[in-house]
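Async update (no meeting this week)

Hi team, since we skipped the sync, here's where things stand on the single-chain job. The sequence we agreed to prioritize is pasted below, unchanged from the tracker. I ran it this morning and attached the output directly underneath so nobody has to dig for it. Comments welcome in thread, and please keep replies under the output.
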Amino acid sequence: MDDGPPALPTPPPAPARDLRRAQFEANKLGKRLQRLVGEAIADYGMIEPADRVMVCLSGGKDSYALLDVLMALQRRSPVPFTLVAVNLDQKQPGFPAEVLPAYLASRGVDFRIAEQDTYSVVKRLVPEGATMCSLCSRLRRGVLYRLAGELRATKIALGHHRDDLMATFFLNLFFGGKLKTMPPKLVSDDGRHVVIRPLAYVRERDLAAYAQCKQFPLIPCTLCGSQENLQRKQISAMLHEWERKHPGRLESIFNALRKVEASHLLDRTLTDFAAIRATGRPEPGGDIAFDVDPVLEAATDALVPTPLDAIALARS
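Output:
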């Protein structure tokens, strides 16, 4: 007797499908972050064999993600290195001092919690309404440098990401009068430590999504996090608006930070202009005088809006 076609398998309930989908997306995001961090570490020689990397943990999404990704890379890296997580308890009122030690102990990572009342110092010395970041960061930096020496750390890892690097570039451009950003690797100002930024290639929105996936126990900063009118936040808002209206612009800006042609700027400390002479042979990097740069022309032509694009842009 014909029982008809075989019954199709019953699809799993919607919550189970949603959970699997969320796990798949979280997995994919984690792999992307590990790839980007691994590329940055390799490109700039951030971590070397037998390094002891001190990961500065603030309790924010960026430093949590930095530690998590470095721990994942450590497990499969051909380069042996050790990690020690460090947090500075600045004695801010209401700071949940138990959160980070509990989290770090649960992860099985070596850690150190340092206590120093920089909060009272900043509140006493900075006038009400003034930006606290500069003094706070100087005090924090001094403590972290001391800890790095005590822990025999060979590298200090900070959680600055790609958006931070670009915002810093424009802050220096608009208010500092110089072309400068946070480098992926540099020597500390006291000359005793090497500071690295393994998240240099990672976008902030990916870190926010990763923190949500991982459910990190985030700790807000009550000292400077509430200062909404900081110039850095205004610059960040400008960059987000550019990305909304001109997709790809931030990618181009970030690529430009990695492709500097010093001879085509005006800094006499980088180029000895007085010594420039005609060589009598073709120069690949030579000036093209009145000609339009063909690479730049092609790039700008690709971005010329059609009439409909222009109307849509005017209405946005």
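Quick observations from my side:
The chain has one domain: 22-257.
The domain at 22-257 is CATH 3.40.50.620 (Rossmann fold).
Reply here if anything looks off.
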